[in-house]
Amino acid sequence: MLLAGTxxxxxxxxxxxxxxxxxxxxxFFNELSPQLYKDQVKSYPILRTDSEVSHLxxxxxxxxxxxxxxxxxxxxxxxxxxxxxxxTHIIASSAQISQExxxxxxxxxxxxxxxxxxxxRIGVNVLFNTHSSIHHGVIVGDxxxxxxxxxxxxxxxxxxxxxxxxxxxILPGIELGDEAIVGAGAVVTKNVPPGKVVKGVPAV
Length: 204
What we know:
By secondary structure, the chain is α/β, with parallel strands linked by helices. It folds into two domains: 2-88, Rossmann fold; 89-199, UDP N-Acetylglucosamine Acyltransferase, domain 1 (3 Solenoid), CATH 2.160.10. 16% of the residues lie in helices and 25% in strands. The chain contains three helices and 23 strands. The strands form four sheets. A seven-stranded parallel sheet has the order 6-9-12-15-18-21-23, with helices on one face. Strands 7-10-13-16-19-22 form a six-stranded parallel sheet, with no helix packed on it.
């Protein structure tokens, strides 16, 4: 398995992946400065070039994006796919995902204590961080980041590359446009246009 990213979120994914796959080998990808990765990742192989990744994908094609930023998640997802990788879920054993979910796109990060309810449709490469909850009938687009403790209530529609901050609440039926950003602790009571940043209670 290759984790694309070596920051704080990657460190959290290590624990979940190894709990589920104790005998598997992990590799990491970081094309940036070597000073930008955490000390805890240094014990694992870190790939830095496209050719190194392509070589790894000859023996194992599984990868998962291990960063939070939606725009960076999207870029790394398509980069790994272009190099021959296949996006794979990492799902914590403590997560609760309804058997009646309609769709869970490839490459999801589902962290500890996450709840995803019935009849939801989830796009590709979405990060559901610790103790976030997604309620019935919600649609979540591709490459989104749902931060710790965030709540997306029934039948809300979340566009692609949306970032929802920690402990934010999206009320039932609300629509968030592509690349919208919701601040931590916000309560969203009205639809949010694409690309808009909202914060506060109620969010504006």
